[in-house]
Amino acid sequence: MRPDTPAENVDHHAEAARLERTAGLYPEDAEALLLRAAAHRELAGDRPAATALYDRLLSRPADLEHPHLVRALKAANLWEYGHEAEARAIIEGIRTAAPRDPAPWVIVAEALESHDELEAAQETYTEGARGLLTDGEEPPHAAHPLLFGRHRVRRMLGVPHDAWDTLADTLHTSPVPLDELHDPKRVWSLGSENPAELRAEISRLQAELGTFRAALSRPFPVAILHWPQPELTELLADYPSLASEYPSYEAHLAAIESALRELSASGTSNLGIVHGTVPSYEAFAASEGTSPSDPTLLPQYATVLAARGRAVAWPPERGDGCWCGVGRAYGECHGVA
Predict the structure, then answer these.
(1) What residue spans define the domains of the chain?
(2) What would you report as the CA-atom Rg of the chain, rounded to the nearest whole angstrom?
(3) pTM: predicted TM-score of the whole model, two decimal places
(4) Phi, psi of 275 (to 5 degrees)
(5) CA torsion angle for 241, 245, 249, 255 (degrees, to 10)?
(6) CB 76 within 8 A of CB 111
(7) DSSP E strands: which ranges in 157-235?
């Protein structure tokens, strides 16, 4: 699925089936692929089928890299179609296990929050933060949703700010402050007839959408395909019709950076870059029953690589090397403003 494809134009059943088929071809990446397939089953409204995929993964726990994440997603899915008792039991098990990954904490806390279990959601966010955050060190980016969610729930409960709420305010980069974004009285402003108030609410909702996009994209980044120069040379030699997509290697690199900056400016977070190889691309084309010369296959290939956990986060951390691989720091290469 292309990153710019509207959700309503996606055939989620077809996407799920394609990812399940790809998982059969790449068993070493089955966990990431089947998790993404389960997400598409949920979006298609087929929650029992999503549960079946989670159970399929959990049947072999020794093979899982992120077992707590799978359990958290299963719990959230179960609760949405009436299996509350089972979902609560799984959530309690995750809290007892205290995973070192922020994602399961966020997912189960959001499940509690979405079902108006605000006190339990606050406790869950707090437990996760207490176990994962270190005093005096900046939290990793993956832990930011934990602090933002905790701030949101505490704002709805009307409790005073504490040090972690202040930290969440500091980490939040939207022009709309978190206190305003999470104001429980905002719903009343939607009934206003004042154009200025309505415009302000639209701005707040747009900022909030960026936060939701981050949550929805977890743990699969929106990824742009990068061909290292030798691979691009081989690709164009074998499939010259793709030259219109890649007029030169320099243009290819510039287009990647430009696309990522545009996505970031539009509010899309959790961005990444995947590095293609010709043999892998040809194998993917064969699995899809089409020719590698088909340019519409390129974004699908990028999506599958991202779902297989092959994406490198963009932008690189300060001081890290540029994603293009030339050996210079990102800030001195494609990260130059």
Answers:
(1) 67-217, 222-332
(2) 21
(3) 0.66
(4) -105, 120
(5) 180
(6) yes
(7) 222-226
From the list 59, 137, 138, 65, the residue with the least C-alpha distance to 101 is 65
The maximal CA–CA distance of the chain, rounded, in angstroms, is: 63
> Which of 141-151 are b and which e, b meaning 16 or more Cβ less than 10 Å from the residue's Cβ?
ebbbbbbbbbb
Q: Which CATH number fits domain 67-217: 1.25.40.10, 3.40.640.10, 1.20.1540.10, 3.90.1150.10?
A: 1.25.40.10
Q: How far is CA 234 from CA 85, 267, 274, 297, in A?
A: 55, 35, 17, 17
Query: What's the one-letter identity of residue 57?
Result: L
Residue 224, SS3? strand
Within 10 A of 234 (CB to CB), how many other CB atoms are there? Answer: 15
Phi/psi of residue 63, each to 5°? -90, -5
Pairs from 282-288 (Cβ < 8 Å, separation ≥ 24) = 283/25, 284/22, 287/21, 287/22, 287/25, 288/18
Q: pLDDT (tens digit, 9 = 90+) per residue, 22-64?
A: 888 888 888 988 998 998 899 889 999 999 999 999 998 888 9
